Amino acid sequence: MIDLYTWTTPNGRKVSILLEELGLDYCVHPVDIGSGEQMAPDFLKISPNNKIPAITDRETGLSLMESGAIMVYLAEKEGRFLPHDREGRARVMEWLMWQMGGFGPMLGQAHHFLHFNPGTSDYAEKRFGDEVRRLYRVLDTRLKDQDFVAGQYSIADMAIWPWASRYEWQRIDLAEFPNVRRWYRRILAREAVQRGYHVPKNMGEIPPG
Fold first, then answer.
1. Are residues 185 and 91 part of one domain?
2. The pTM is what?
3. What are the φ and ψ backbone dihedral angles of 112, each rounded to 5 degrees?
């Protein structure tokens, strides 16, 4: 049994989607970051950086924060969605790190300036808007001749997709990135992804791409 501490954000959805794909039993503990629940002392014992998601593995007693670390841990433990061969593993890790280091942080800034606070800074809107489009072009190029970012469906796709699912917040029209759009819809069609998206609560229709 996995205890999952999460909220309705792309980073939270990465882990709930993986848990659904793995078919693991897990107990959801909503952490409402809008009301400051991430600062609760009990949560800080599990996630010292006061961020979601976090997990506790009841079988091993291990608690982990940071979505990428959690995904690697679960994939390695279950032997799925992270290849065992050196090259395959390296390729998944390459694109997982791309998401953790660029796609997520830059899209997060775009959400702040383009979606939640439009008009506060023309400079920031252009800077992050341009970077978001550059990153989508990188992803579109990567997906030109393959169905998934690392060759086969993996934790890299599960990490990237929830951020792409907020394309409207980023002022992105997926029609301009046909390879991303094809990939986005292929993953959206997976039942585990649809279930994981609505953890810890149903948020209505998932953007169709």
1. yes
2. 0.96
3. -65, -45
| pLDDT score, position 80 | 98
Confidence of residue 87 (pLDDT cuts 50, 70, 90): very high
The Cα–Cα gap between 104 and 10 comes to: 8
Q: What is the DSSP string of the chain?
A: -EEEEE-SSHHHHHHHHHHHHHT--EEEEE--GGGTGGG-HHHHHH-TT--S-EEEETTTTEEEESHHHHHHHHHHHHT-SS-SSHHHHHHHHHHHHHIIIIIHHHHHHHIIIIIISTTS-HHHHHHHHHHHHHHHHHHHHHTTT-SSTTSS--HHHHHHHHHHTTTTTTT--GGGSHHHHHHHHHHHT-HHHHHHHT-SS--SSPP--
How many domains does one find in the chain?
Answer: 2
Q: 146 pLDDT band (50/70/90 cuts)?
A: very high
Note down the domain range covering 169. Answer: 86-190
Sheet holding 26-30, edge to edge: 26-30, 2-6, 54-57, 62-65
Enter the tokens of residue 62. 């291990």
